Amino acid sequence: MNKVIKRINFRLVGQKIYSGRTSKTLNKLVFVVLLLFVSAVGPMSSFGQKMQVNDLEYFETRGVNVLVFSSEYNGMFFDEKTAGIEIIQHGVRTSTGGAIRLQNTPEQWDLVPKVVDRKVNRENNSIEVTLTYEDLDFNSRLLVSSKGKGLEISVFLDEPLPEKLEGQAGFNLEFLPSAYFERSYLMDGQPGVFPKYPSSNTRIEPGSKKIKQFAGHNTFEDRGRDEFIVPYQLATGKIMVLAPEDPERFVTIKSMDADLMFFDGRNVAQNGWFIVRSLLPAGKTGKVLTWYLEPNAMPDWIRTPVVGFSQVGYVPQQEKVAIIELDKNDNPLKTASVFKVNEDGKFVEAFKGDVVEWGDYLRYNYAKFDFSAVKEPGVYCIQYGDQRTNIFPIGPDVYAGTWHPTLDVWFPVQMDHMQVNEAYRVWHGEPYKDDCLQAPLNHQHFDGYSQGPTTDTKYKPLERIPGMAVGGWFDAGDFDIQTGSHNSVISSFVELWEEFNVQRDQTYIDQKTRYVDIHRPDGKPDILQQIEHGVLNLVAQVENIGHPVRGIIVPNLHQYHHLGDASTETDNLPYNPDLKPYETDGVSSGTPDDRWAFTNRSSYLDYQTAATLAAASRALKGYNDELANKCLAYAKKLLEEADEAVKNSGNESDESWMRLMARGADLNTVLQLYITTKETKYLDRFEERIWTILDQSGQGRDFGQMFFASRSLNPALKAIPYMNDDYKAKLESYILKYKASVDEMEKNNPYGLPISRSGWGGSGMVVNAAITNYYAHKAFPAIIDREHVFRGLNFIFGCHPYSNISFVNAVGTRSKKVAYGINRADFTTIAGGIVPGLLLLKPDFLENKDDWPFLWGENEVTIGGSAEYIVLANAVLDMIKE
């Protein structure tokens, strides 16, 4: 029956609708056919496998999963498009956000419901979720039950809808635009094509009609406008069919009572999705809304195997193991082959070997194909069954240039307070000449920032802080300065300078004229120039504010979601309260758009910054002696002040992981101060503290423990050249414990690496672990094998779950096509940036979308992660020299 209806839809749509000869009679016929089947058996429902609630507490049938609040909305970032009712259809998450929402097209900072209760009834094949909007005193229940081949979604209200939510509250289900581009839809038989770009009509409503956003912020309150944009629906009806021509994306929705309304959320925000919505009725209780949802499930569907390998390739002497990710209904083949591409264009089999099954991990089955025997330089591909991968090289120099785009392109583009040019392109003008104002007291900001009851500075709220329009990098895909991230980057760059002697010069950087030109050498090592650029902002913080600060960020949401040229996010004129908004005297402005500094003091941040400045002082010596001397003086000052603050805090008994990390924050500080000054008081303190911290950091298969163990081992390993033989002998026992945790990780997943299960992809954890393994291998080669270093880099380059693309933009044969950067609205990338990678959609779905850049947990490039990637790339090059 399902096939019959699909043929009817395909023939009608293909012959008439797509040809432009649509008639009202024909449209009614399509609707009547659908309605007859819906009424008789449920939409395409009586034939086929029923959805069941599985052991992981979500609905499943062959080829389709429906998650029901396996993940909740985030109380900090609100709608991350990873919560509510979500559809995974034929291996791709195509829908999210099924919940009671208060807008037709909610934005990220619009209010989200909190889960009060979630009940799973496997016997009845149902999941019930109780939701609340606490501030609005509004509760609702969602009951999702298996019916036919789909699901019935019912909304229950114990009390009538509050009057202020009438016409506002409704059930929404969002569909990923990129999954439906170039596909059609039918609403009650009326045809439409999913728009590639938002172009539907909108209207303006007064701000008083909009339910306030997070913490009272307002996305559209710009230029004195208290209003917001409301898109008109693209279609309205009772039955909506999405992509009837594509069995992999075919979904049917029927509303039993209220109308279905179809919206394009991208009219309001570039990261919006397509939304199907029904309003909740006023004055009713009990079951107030019912949908029938049926994602088409292809019979006997099996996901195409993912053959994971390094898109960059391999050096001849390393292990070469492809990891094959298989559908749980698939069986691994016995063998696979490697083909070499000859100069005449012919593919010649160079190796054939066994495929060895590894076992299950999360939702897939895995196997390994070891082709380490292939050592001859050349261009190769892997053949697994009828699937042939793209090409990759084997040769002695395959890793040589892998980090160049990151240093040459990505970091220059992130440079704050500079105009950045690349050939014919200006990435951005000189931004934030108006930096910055003291943040107001007791203020809950967005993106994790808040200011407490004091400023911890000499400045009054919203008073100008002088001297701050200098140096720094944009932290990630937005335009704030985060001091912790700066410390990480500068420390990594010092490491590159001292450990690997990186002398590369491909960027022109002029601090006097605030100008950067990419691909233009200027006779100075780029690493030193980047260290100087980052340090300038840290030193400005200590000099002008008195201590390092949490960060510097724009005050308004209508600025924060800015995309494109950073120099247009503010008017670049210092705020003058004596002028009216948008009024200027030529040197100042009455527009309150200047960034705010969030200045509550942190001992941990003081320690971290002191370590960074102590290390930077060495690198800058002989390059910028005045700045180097300031760095050392401020490093000593911050250490003393942090010690005094910790002594007076009385919190040293707190054994939480975060507190443990903070208690070890002084370790790297005193180590760096010793390396710089050679004063033994710093070395004595380091040796006194390191063993306690290593004992507390723990080892084991737990990802968090392994991460902190790795963080603690890094300074311990880097201290070896400054210690005696007894120190190294004692450290060996900790390396053996760490090796045991590494071995345990190899049993945990087929990649043998710490794959993140948090709300942020795990590329950083993998890179950091591989760097630790490099230093451990260097000091204890008999314990930690070099393959533990190669493995981390190859994971980043494509040997990972979900796909086999390189997570470093523009590096490798196939790499990320889109990323969450300042240009994300253009669906492009900035060369060299490393994305977070794999995001776990609870309970078992690892994802990294390469057709939708707006999922920051998967695709947002950060300065800290990109700098550490350069370190790992150079560590591998150093190891190859062995």
Structure description:
The structure is a single chain. With about 900 residues, the protein is an alpha+beta fold. Among the domains are: about 50-200 and about 235-295, Beta-galactosidase, Chain A, domain 5; about 305-395, Sandwich (Immunoglobulin-like), CATH 2.60.40. The strands form eight sheets. It has a nine-stranded antiparallel beta sheet with strand order 1-2-3-4-5-10-19-18-15. A nine-stranded antiparallel beta sheet has the order 6-7-8-9-20-17-16-11-12, with helices on one face. The longest helix is centred in the C-terminal third of the chain and has 25 residues, at about 625-650. The radius of gyration is 29 Å and the shape is globular. The termini are far apart. Mean pLDDT is about 90; it is low at about 1-50, about 650-660 and about 700-705. Pfam families: CelD_N, Glyco_hydro_9. GO terms for molecular function: cellulase activity. It comes from Gaoshiqia sediminis. This is Glycoside hydrolase family 9 protein.
Across the major sheet, the strand order is 1-2-3-4-5-10-19-18-15
In which range does the helix fraction lie? 25-40%
Unreliable segments of 5+ consecutive residues: 1-48, 652-658, 699-704
Individual helix count:
18
Organism: Gaoshiqia sediminis
Family: Belongs to the glycosyl hydrolase 9 (cellulase E) family.
GO molecular function: cellulase activity
Protein name: Glycoside hydrolase family 9 protein
